[in-house]
Amino acid sequence: MATAAARTPISNGRLFWLVVLLALSVLLNYVDRGAIGVAAPLMKAELNLSATAFGTAVSAFFWVYAPLCLVVGWLCDRFCVYRMFAAGIALWALATMLTGFVSGLALLIVLRLLLGLGESIAFPGSSKIFAAEVPAHHRGSANALIAAAIAFGPAVGTLAGGIILDEAGWRPVFWIFGAVTLLWLVPWHPLSRPLRSHALTAPVVDPVPLGKLLRVPAVWLMGIGHFCTNYPFYFLLTWLPLYLVQSRGFSIAEMTALTTVGFTVQGVMALVLGRLSDTWVQRGVDEARVRRALMIAGQAMAALAIAAVFFAQGVVQIGLCLALAGLASSMTSTNLFAIAQMFAGPRAAGGWVGLQNAIGNASGIVGPIATGLIIDYLGGYGYAFALTALVPALGALWWWKAIPPIREIAV
């Protein structure tokens, strides 16, 4: 098997800041993709969108994002991931800013498609770098930063977006969020400049052909588990603000506070659990057993929390249920990509995570449209909450029984 040219090692300091900046990119990723949910209480009415139309607009992001994760993962194993990150972020920042100018459903869908195109770099690219550079005993902490960013993105987006929404309307939410995302490119350029050389960007060994990955059953099994993990998270990200304002009668300020609570708990606990999992591994506990157990527990807890939100009464009860949902998501998001990196190894990490992410994010295609149809044609949110609780309940069984022994697979 051919090997690439010798790679110049990355210093610990540069690697630390690289991981931090990648985590920040994921935070901005979720701020921008979730902006439509924050803006929904005013945006949906001004644009005269039905629940089904709004769900279609949300889903449009994933029409491009999900399949492109596969393609982008393949590209990450072959080309300079640092340049790909810069191009992707520039595109999604511009798409976010332009969303503030839309006047109808058609243009909104086009810009959601462009947003999905730009954001498709985030997870295949970061996993490619982590699998190649981060040692096993730091894998939990590195992925915990990404998991925390997944949570703090909606938390920051909801808090900041709710304030902007209340003070200035929904359009400035997109203008400001997009402009802030463009600023990420300022530190990325000097940080990644020495890493863009051939010696650092060439793969250690020949990349795995996509055809081989498509024939690995574990990739597809992980993708289905990923689907079950994403479904409840995207439901809360997209529909919770609208549900709290329209169906529960909360003000925008109350909605902002409640939604922020759940995502903040998720972010904090992702960091805690990432560090704990690394500590357990360092003490000799089997890494695969730790990460599988946390996935099972997180999925089961998510099912319970989603159902509880619907039946909870008052601000305190709903806040506690959303905090429980945040804890559940912290368990799954911390370990989902770490397990993929364990299966794939450095050689196949980009393609593996791209394929897994493509399957998993089909939940973003199906879920918003299904929820919109349920609300419009079955009346209210009850059946939507029931379906959303059922998916992670089945996911807990899937992670327990269907996912094969977690170890690197030769492909």
Sum up the structure in keywords.
411 residues; disordered N terminus; mainly alpha; 17 helices; single chain
Structure characterization notes:
The protein has 411 residues and is mainly α. 83% of the residues lie in helices and 0% in strands. It contains 17 helices and no strands. It has helices at residues 12-33, 35-46, 51-76, 81-99, 105-119, 122-133, 136-168, 171-182, 185-192, 198-201, 210-214, 217-247, 252-282, 287-311, 314-360, 362-379, 382-401. Helix 4 (81-99) packs antiparallel against helix 8 (171-182).
Set down the secondary structure blueprint.
Elements (H helix, E strand, L loop, with lengths): L11 H22 L1 H12 L4 H26 L4 H19 L5 H15 L2 H12 L2 H33 L2 H12 L2 H8 L5 H4 L8 H5 L2 H31 L4 H31 L4 H25 L2 H47 L1 H18 L2 H20 L10
Helix pairs in contact: 1-4, 1-6, 1-7, 1-8, 1-9, 2-7, 2-8, 2-12, 3-5, 3-6, 3-15, 3-16, 4-5, 4-6, 4-8, 4-9, 6-15, 7-8, 7-13, 7-15, 12-13, 12-15, 12-16, 12-17, 13-15, 14-15, 14-17, 16-17
What is this structure, in a nutshell?
With about 400 residues, the protein is mostly helical. Helices cover about 85% and strands about 0% of the residues. Helix 3 (about 50-75) packs parallel to helix 5, helix 7 (about 135-170) packs antiparallel against helix 13 and helix 7 (about 135-170) crosses helix 15 (about 315-360).
Low-pLDDT stretches are 1-6, 198-204
The number of helices is 17
What fraction of residues sit in β-strands?
A: under 5%
Major sheet size, sense and barrel closure: none
Mean pLDDT: 85
What structural category characterises the helix and strand content? mainly alpha
From the alpha carbons, calculate the radius of gyration and give it in angstroms: 20 Å
